[in-house]
Amino acid sequence: MSDQVRSDTRLSSVSRDVRDQIADLQADYIAALDSQDMKGWLASFDENNSSYFCRSKENEDEGLEVGYMFDDCHERICDRVKFVDEIWAGTFEEYQTRHFLQPTRCKSLGEDLYSAQTNFTVMYTDDAGITKVLASGCYDDEIVVNGVARLRSRKAVLDTNVVPRYMVYPI
Amino acid sequence: MNAHSDLVTSLEWPANLNEIPKAVFDDPDLYKMELEKIFYGPEWQVVAHRGEVPEKGDFKRFYIGEMPVLVIHGEDGQVRVFHNACSHRGALVETKNRGSQLEFECPYHRWLFSSTGEMIGCPNSNQFSPGFKKENFGLREIRTDEYCGLVFATLSDDTPDLKEWMGERMLDPLARILGGDGRLRLLGYQKVNYACNWKAYVDNDGYHAPLLHPAFKLLNWQGGRGSQTPTENGHIVFEADLTMPDRVDLLDDPSLIDFKGTDTSNGSLVISTFPITVLTKHLDMLNVRFAFPRDNDHTEVHYAYFRHEDDDEEMARHRLRQASNLLGPSGMISLEDAAIFTRIHHGNISPGNAIFQKGVSDPRQLNFTPAQNDETGNLPRWEYYRKLMGFRRAQS
Ligand code: FES
Ligand SMILES: [Fe+2]
């Protein structure tokens, strides 16, 4: 990566205020998921226009669009909340996740839109109390920031090309 | 290769055909025997579809049992399956899961192979053992056959002809899952490693569907006419019509469950081929679940999704949405199946037999025409398994 490109996408290329709003969004997002609060997860997305994708890096690198989750409009994101809270309720084994994030890149796309990349590791603990890695990867986001930050689109790309269990909750 | 499990001699299989000894899920020696007799034995294993390797030079890495194999679309147009082991000292020839290249080089001592498996070159061969001939050191090829682009491989010379092994009944539904003519293109994968024995993974039954999966009820999706057809050699074909509701109130985006295709009935098709592959077509989604055991306690499944070559953009997009959201390890109407695999695996570490009930009218007879929501459809496969492994059945 050239020095020019690097400095353009560094976290410090955007204002501290914008960074703070994005940090709040990321914290709210993982706090919601780690407490199985799907409505809280939904609240992280821009309700006018948003998308969420979760797919393996293997697919992503090859331009194969299939994902574990493919919510290409806000209605699909709302339906994912229903999958978890209504349709699947009482059928799956509960598991506790912990998301750990590290922002790496951020850049203005003009107006109030920003692109951001954030590494993640998600640990999960099953009913037996055993903790393992669920997935490791990177969020590729577009974020609207105007007093409060919301996800316009989130792509969770999993380095973990073979996940160790079925996934109930988004990453 | 002569694995033996004491269980095969010590355990007496119950006289009732609907009783399955739970001990068979939790015996590492038995698992080694299963690899030899089933995965490396006279059965066809599903390893790829041409849609994954459409161009000359395209390759895919996969497994038969625990053995690594390499599927290559050769420069002559033929799709071959090789052991993924260098003909020199056996290093993996290829470590990428998929790719495209016309030559395959083992980095260890730089032996080079063509896309049809021939040895092209090996450095310093003038100093090799007397009688060394390049022609004898191609990649080791595995017997293969194809049906509608689905690539089968078998390590045994005794395996019957593919169509005979599948049986007449399977040919038409299998073609329909494969888009009618097998002209498919890959949309992508969902890969997951389930913590369960491979037999628990394939033992899903017809009884559970309306009970385990709330989506059917919530969507007012009535199961219409349906059938299950098991074969003597362990395959099962499930077919069901789905009566679609006029309105879907549950979903904000009901387009997810639209049915656009006109090629088959408005329904659902599931084929399970012995030992471990499942193929599904539900609404417009075309799916092959390539699978292999990682060890006695783990089954890895690569859900591969396809579109048809003739699909327009809209149809391809629709299949993509159904592929990603309906029937995979996080799918709206299949997540619950995944949730059962590990429960069955762990719960089966308990004494006694698992006793199938639904549809059993005579425990001493196999039923080859079970009703759609019976669980008797799984019993011919268990009986086939018992015979293959050589378990004695109790007389009474
Ligand atoms: S092991 Fe492959 S070249 Fe020696
Ligand atoms: Fe099911």
Question: Could you explain the architecture of this structure?
Answer:
The complex is a heterodimer of chains A (171) and B (396). Chain A is α+β, with helices and mostly antiparallel strands. Chain A has one domain (3-158): Roll (Nuclear Transport Factor 2, Chain: A). Chain A has helices spanning 3-9, 16-34, 38-42, 57-62, 74-87; strands spanning 51-56, 69-71, 96-108, 113-125, 131-145, 149-158. Chain A is globular and about 50 Å long. Chain B has two domains: 45-154, Rieske Iron-sulfur Protein, CATH 2.102.10; 181-384, Alpha-Beta Complex (Naphthalene 1,2-dioxygenase Alpha Subunit, Chain A, domain 1). Chain B is α+β, with helices and mostly antiparallel strands and 396 residues long. Chain B starts with 5 loop residues before the first helix and ends with a strand. Bound molecules: FE2/S2 (inorganic) cluster and fe (ii) ion. FE2/S2 (inorganic) cluster is lined by residues 86, 88-89, 91, 106, 108-109, 111 of chain B.
What percent of the residues of chain A sit in helical stretches (DSSP H or I)?
A: 25-40%
> Sheet bearing the most strands of chain B, described?
7 strands, antiparallel
**Overall morphology of chain B:** globular
Pairing-aware structural class of the strands and helices of chain A? alpha+beta
Q: What is CATH's topology name of chain A?
A: Nuclear Transport Factor 2, Chain: A
Low-confidence stretches of chain B: none
CATH class of the largest domain in chain B: Alpha Beta
Distance between the termini of chain A: 28 Å
In which range does the helix fraction of chain B lie?
10-25%
Major sheet strand order of chain B: 3-12-11-6-5-4-7
Proper CATH architecture of the largest domain in chain B:
Alpha-Beta Complex
Q: State mean pLDDT of chain B (0 to 100 scale).
A: 94
Give the cofactors and ligands: FE2/S2 (inorganic) cluster, fe (ii) ion
**CATH fold naming of the largest domain in chain B:** Naphthalene 1,2-dioxygenase Alpha Subunit, Chain A, domain 1
CATH superfamily of the largest domain in chain B: Naphthalene 1,2-dioxygenase Alpha Subunit, Chain A, domain 1
Radius of gyration of chain A: 16 Å
* N-end to C-end Cα span of chain B: 34 Å
**Number of domain modules of chain A:** 1
